[in-house]
Structures are given as structure tokens and as C-alpha cells.
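Support request from a user on the community tier.

User writes: "When I paste my C-alpha cells into the form, the page sometimes reloads and wipes my input. The last time it worked, I copied everything first. Here is what I submitted, just in case something in the input itself triggers the reload:"
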């Protein structure tokens, strides 16, 4: 028997008992729709949870710090055994498989002021390794470019421009208003101490001056010394989701190391505060230490293995990806529960297919006998009944997928109109570039799996009827009424 003849016979038999085929397929349709819809809901909720997590930071970036406590051993790590965030640690981190870049950071906690023309304001100074971070931070630049490594280049945070003030102009305006005697305007004037709202302006490609002030004591009297550095602002970063480092200025790491050396220099003054600071740091460390080291992992799939390696080497790690494992485990359990509940209807549908095929055998016993007499083999008989049951499952699977798609669209519409994602604290990472936030989502693999699984369910349900049909005696089948 040719394959094309087999499919023709199968299609004729299914079309001949249209109502029975349709009713049997309804069971598969409901089961498939239930499984797909529930899986789509759990997948959609998981995707939105991951997007919300990504809004707090990249899942492939993590901050590395010394490990202070070993939970497995319930003990504190002695200070002399703790890892130090120095040049040796940077080299050790670079050697770990899966880490694409190691970006050390050093912050300046001294009095630092940025002057652009007549505007000025206090900023936080952050030194970064330009060579390691350039490829990964260039996408964070809103205006201009990222650092190229020149000591005269700086990049500012998103809030720096609005933080700079022209205090002399504000004071002149205040005196003018005061001289005019307009009390109403006096209440509205901006305060030179920062009470007003400064106007943001473009800082990119402007010349500026970084002024760092250090304090020391001479004969128990406080003295101050300033160091001015001429720089050029080459870029401005996007505002961060959590406002972190929005008032900071990013400079090459060697410049910050040079400034620390200047701050710790005694300058020949006995008993100075800079001398005391230098002695304290000299006793605590033998070389320059960073405040923070950020590592970039090559892919999200390697994050867990990198975190495990870092902890084994004595480092503690913070990353949004640490919460990703808990999210995956939670939604995996949810998918199992929802899929298990929906699978009950597929089990009922399977029993319905078995019953339909057995009834078909009883109705077509004489036809089976004639097929055997004219040369149909056992394999041909089994193949026909397996294909019939498989196509019943396939029809139900396709119809169930269409039903699930409609249900998902309704859920997404209701969820969007009612603001369910926002009320659950999800969806804040989605919606970018016009992307619609979806409560449920049917990926391509789920659609293909649903159709294939429905067809497989039909084949499995047809095994027993196919075997029973192939075992019928040809003479008894022809004589049956």
C-alpha cells in the first residue's frame, strides 16, 4: 500500500464520521488550550519579572567584594585572610573562565568641585579603568562619547548639569531684588545656598576645571590646599533607573590614583592631617586598593558558574542575576502545577480517542477483513489506525492552539487595561521602544510543542485499537455483519 493511498483512506474515514471526529477532537482541543494558556501565563509573568529585575542593572554584570562570612561554616573570615580589591585581585578575576571584563572603580571622598565657566558645583569623583569598561559603557552615553583614556577627558552623570549653579549671578539678582524692595520677588528668588532650581544646560564638549581641596594642620591650625585640573567634558550618561552615581564625574583611573597620592602627601608639615591619613592607609595596605570591582560575564547562562567560582575564591558577589535563580525555580514550580492541572483534561481526551477508535474497529470489521484478503499487511492496518488517531489529536491540537491564542489576547487586553502588571510590581522593564507589555506570551517553541504533543497523544491513544484491529481474522471479519 502506497503512503499517499494510506493518507487518502485516513482522510476519507475521518470525513465519513465528521461528528464523532469533531467531538473527540474537542477533548484534545480543550486540554491543549488549557495547557498552552496556563504555560503562556506563567512564561509571560516570568519574562516580566526578569525585565523588572533587569531594570535595576544588567544581569551579566556583578559587583565583587571581599567575602566576610562563610555561611556553610558559620564563621567570620579573619581580616588578614580576606581578599583585597587590589591589582592582584584584578588579575585573578581576569583568569576566571566566563568573565569578559574586569572593571575596577576608585571613588574620591574628598572635597571635589566642578567648574564650567561661571557655574560650579560639588561632585563625586569616580575613577574607572577605561580600557576594560569602554566597550560596555559606550551604550550608557546619552550625549557625546565615552572616555578614550586621556587624563584630560571626563564623562559626567545625568544630574551633574542641573547641579551646577552660577552663585555670583544669583547673589547679584538677589541684591537687585532686595534693593528694589519688592518683597514678593524676594520670596521667589533662588537661594544661593541651593534652595532654587538651577537650569540644566549642555556640558558636552565644554572645557572645565576639577578643583580638589585637601586639609592639613600646621601648628594646630587648619590649612587648605587646592589642586586644579583642566579637563574637557566629552560625554554625558543616561539617567540610571535607581539614580545611582547621577551626580558623579567619571575620570580615568590613573588620575584618581595620582590625586590620592597628592592627598596623602604630607607636604613637609609635621603633624598634618595628610600625614596621619597616609600613615593609617600605609599600615592597612601595602598597595593601592579599589573601592569596587565590577565584572562583566560573557553570557547570562554563565552567571551562576562564575558566581560559584568567585565564592570559592573568597569573593562575595552582588548582582540582580542572583535573584534570577529564585525566579526560575518559582516559575518552574508554577508551570508544573498549572501544566499538571491542565494535563488532566488531556488524559480524559486520550480515553475519548481510544473509545472512538475501538468503536471505529467494530463498525469497520468487514472492511478490515477485505483489506487483509486483498493483500494489506499487519503493518498497513496498524498504520491506518495510528494515523487516524494521530490526526484526531492533530486537529484538536491546532484548534486548541488557536483557542489558547485567543484566550491569551483577551488576558493581555484585560491585563493592560486594568494595569495588573504594575499593581504586581512587574513590567517596569518592558514597554521600551514601543514594546507592548504582555501578561501572557506564547513563544514559538510552545506552539510547536503543543501541536506535536497533541499528535503524539493521538498516536499513543491509537496503539491499543491499532493492535486489536491488526489481530482480527480475515475470514471472521468478512463474515461479520
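"...and here is what came back when it finally went through:"
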Amino acid at each position: 500500500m502506497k503512503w499517499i493511498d494510506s493518507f487518502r483512506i485516513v482522510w476519507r474515514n475521518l470525513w465519513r464520521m465528521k461528528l464523532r471526529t469533531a467531538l473527540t477532537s474537542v477533548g484534545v482541543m480543550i486540554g491543549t488550550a488549557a495547557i498552552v494558556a496556563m504555560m503562556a501565563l506563567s512564561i509571560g509573568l516570568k519574562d516580566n519579572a526578569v525585565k523588572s529585575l533587569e531594570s535595576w542593572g544588567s544581569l551579566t554584570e556583578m559587583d565583587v567584594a571581599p567575602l566576610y562570612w562563610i555561611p556553610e561554616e558559620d564563621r567570620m573570615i579573619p581580616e588578614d585572610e580576606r581578599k583585597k580589591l587590589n591589582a592582584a585581585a584584578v588579575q585573578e578575576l581576569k583568569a576566571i573562565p566566563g568573565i569578559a571584563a574586569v572593571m575596577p572603580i576608585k571613588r574620591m571622598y574628598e572635597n571635589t568641585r566642578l567648574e564650567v565657566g561661571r557655574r560650579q558645583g560639588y561632585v563625586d569623583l569616580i575613577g574607572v579603568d577605561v580600557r576594560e569598561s569602554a566597550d560596555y559603557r559606550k551604550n550608557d552615553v546619552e550625549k557625546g562619547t565615552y572616555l578614550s583614556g586621556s587624563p584630560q577627558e571626563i564623562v559626567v552623570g545625568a544630574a551633574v548639569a542641573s547641579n551646577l549653579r552660577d552663585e555670583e549671578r544669583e547673589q547679584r539678582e538677589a541684591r537687585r531684588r532686595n534693593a528694589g524692595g519688592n518683597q514678593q520677588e524676594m520670596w521667589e528668588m533662588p537661594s544661593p545656598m541651593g534652595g532654587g532650581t538651577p537650569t540644566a544646560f549642555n556640558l558636552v564638549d565644554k572645557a572645565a576645571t576639577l578643583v580638589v581641596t585637601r586639609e592639613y594642620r600646621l601648628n594646630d591650625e587648619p590649612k587648605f590646599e587646592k589642586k586644579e585640573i583642566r579637563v574637557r567634558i566629552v560625554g554625558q550618561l543616561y539617567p540610571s533607573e535607581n539614580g545611582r552615581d547621577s551626580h558623579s564625574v567619571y575620570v580615568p583611573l590613573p588620575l584618581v590614583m595620582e590625586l590620592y597620592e597628592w592627598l596623602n602627601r604630607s607636604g613637609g608639615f609635621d603633624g598634618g592631617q595628610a600625614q596621619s591619613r597616609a600613615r593609617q592607609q600605609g599600615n592597612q595596605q601595602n598597595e593601592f586598593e579599589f573601592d569596587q570591582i565590577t565584572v562583566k560575564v560573557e553570557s547570562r547562562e554563565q552567571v551562576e558558574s562564575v558566581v560559584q567560582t568567585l565564592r570559592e575564591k573568597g569573593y562575595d558577589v552582588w548582582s540582580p542575576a542572583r535573584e534570577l535563580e529564585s525566579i526560575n525555580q518559582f516559575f518552574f514550580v508554577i508551570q508544573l502545577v498549572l501544566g499538571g492541572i491542565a494535563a488532566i483534561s488531556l488524559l480524559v481526551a486520550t480515553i475519548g480517542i481510544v473509545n472512538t477508535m475501538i468503536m471505529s474497529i467494530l463498525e469497520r470489521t468487514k472492511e478490515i477483513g477485505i483489506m487483509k484478503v486483498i493483500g494489506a499487511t499487519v503493518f498497513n492496518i496498524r498504520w491506518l489506525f495510528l494515523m487516524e488517531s494521530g490526526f484526531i489529536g492533530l486537529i484538536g491540537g491546532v484548534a486548541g492552539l488557536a483557542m489558547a491564542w485567543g484566550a491569551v489576547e483577551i488576558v493581555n487586553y484585560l491585563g493592560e487595561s486594568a494595569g495588573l502588571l504594575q499593581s504586581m510590581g512587574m513590567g517596569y522593564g518592558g514597554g521600551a521602544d514601543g514594546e507592548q507589555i504582555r501578561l501572557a506570551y506564547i513563544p514559538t517553541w510552545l506552539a510547536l510543542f503543543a501541536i506535536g504533543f497533541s499528535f503524539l497523544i493521538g498516536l499513543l491513544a491509537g496503539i491499543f485499537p491499532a493492535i486489536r484491529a491488526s489481530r482480527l481474522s480475515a475470514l471472521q471479519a468478512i463474515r461479520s455483519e
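Agent notes: The reload is a front-end session timeout and is unrelated to the input. Residues 183-197, 267-286, 428-434 have pLDDT under 50 and may be disordered. The two ends are 26 Å apart (CA to CA). Escalated to web team.
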